[in-house]
Amino acid sequence: MLHRDFRSARVMALVAAVAMLAFSTPCFAAGVNEEDVPETSVVPAEGPSGAAGAPAGSPSSMTPSAPAESGVMSAPAPTTKPHVHHAASTNRAPEIEPAQARLKVLQDAPVYSAPAKSSKRIEQLTTGKFVEVTGSTHYYLQVQLKSGQTGYIDPSAVEVVKPTDKVFVLTHDAGVLDKPSRWGKKLAEVHQGHNVHVIGLALNYVQIRMKSGLEGFVPLTALE
Q1: Among 80, 99, 112, 136, which residue has the least CB neighbours within 10 Å?
Q2: Which of 160, 157, 173 is nearest to 204 (CA)?
Q3: Alpha carbon 33 to chain centroid, angstroms
């Protein structure tokens, strides 16, 4: 009987303890404020796709970010020197083969300031007059005007070749050219000691006719 009462008292004490614990737990929970809960210092961020970002301290979270655009130092652009266009000089003296002759004007023609039709016209030649020729270029004759100016004319405007009819013995080998100038095309060659038939005089050249009928010009120096 005593043993049964002891067990009953023990059970009652256990029930009372459980009851006290049940009542004390809500009270403890009710006494806790939001301020007592520590804030989370690391919160996983969601990426563009909605996936959680890598936790702090992981290798991906320690990747250095790209420097700000304003702090990027770009290599200086290579400097290039401005290209200078050099205009061709129109005042360059033409190459002249000296000559001396007084030639008759065959037709009215302009006198140019330079050996080119694009140059300025400085005078007009008149048919039947004479002009002093002082040299020749590749395509023009150089003349000295009464005004003292130097000009250039087309060879067709004057009587370049003065007819003659003589025979000379060559003292030097010489090339036979198609015009009385060093810019003439070589047509043939005559040799020292041979006779040549001279049919005209042209500046510092003579016009010859060969036995074959070919006509051309050789320098006067080949006859001296």
Answers
A1: 80
A2: 160
A3: 82
Q: How far apart are the first and last CA of the chain?
A: 177
Instruction: Give 186's contacts (C-beta < 8 A, 6+ positions apart).
Output: 175, 176, 177
Could you tell me the pTM of the whole model?
0.58
Tell me if 159 sits within 8 A of 131, measured CB to CB: no
The larger pLDDT score, comparing residue 185 to residue 36, is at 185
Model confidence band, residue 94 (pLDDT cutoffs 50, 70, 90): confident
Residue 11: alpha-carbon gap to chain centroid = 111
Q: What Rg value do the Cα atoms of the chain yield, rounded?
A: 59
Domains identified in the chain and CATH numbers:
97-157 (2.30.30.40), 162-223 (2.30.30.40)
Alpha-carbon distance of 67 to 157, in angstroms, equals 82
How far from 195 is each of 96, 144, 171, 203, CA to CA, in Å? 31, 36, 10, 21
Tokens of 211: 């036995």
DSSP 130-169: EEEEEEE-SS-EEEE-TTS-EEEE-GGGB--PEEEEEEEE
One-letter amino acid for residue 39 of the chain: E
